[in-house]
Amino acid sequence: MKKSILVLTLWATASGLMAQDENHIKGKGFRKENLFTGGNITASFFSGTTLLGLSPYFGYSLNKYMDLAASINFNYTSQRDYTEYGDKARQTVFGPGAFVRLFPVNFLFAQAQYEHNFIRFKYIPASNTTTYLPSISHYDVNSFLVGGGYSSGRGMGNNTYYYLSVMWDIGGVAQSPYVDGLGRNFPVIRAGFNIALFQGNKYNRIK
What we know:
It contains one helix and eight strands; from the N terminus they run αββββββββ. The chain has a single domain, classed as Porin (Beta Barrel), CATH 2.40.160. It is mainly β. It has an eight-stranded antiparallel beta barrel with strand order 1-2-3-4-5-6-7-8.
């Protein structure tokens, strides 16, 4: 229910922003100068958890307020004291995703991102323990990240910018790569670079 309310809220916000932008649209249909690419680096450290990753993406600006993109995720996570004191957990993550960014102003954005990740999980028990055994497992899981961030350089005629974002997984799945062994959501910090395509003329703007 919470996820449905959030999605409806984001959709209503996006529709309102698109309506506000109608007076600026000079043409309809596909515009190649609205294409962009980019990627981000993930680094998060929280209560014995380390998350490192890389996520390239390719997308399209619907207007100056809203960007859509498809992405690929590569992540590595290490956790200490996963089940008991002294043990360790390691997992590698790979999977497709998609996100929407809403820009109420040029330098701030809200973001919602869906991911379907394939995970290889390795458990290393604490030394001298007799409770748990080493194990390796494979599974896949959905994540729904929400948050916001700061962009530097985005504006009229320029869709190339640096950005920094912080998000949390609200999907409620215990096996999510963004949830620790105690079920706590930790912040996912991502920094990256958005690169505009086909914006050769400095007077072009995001329609």
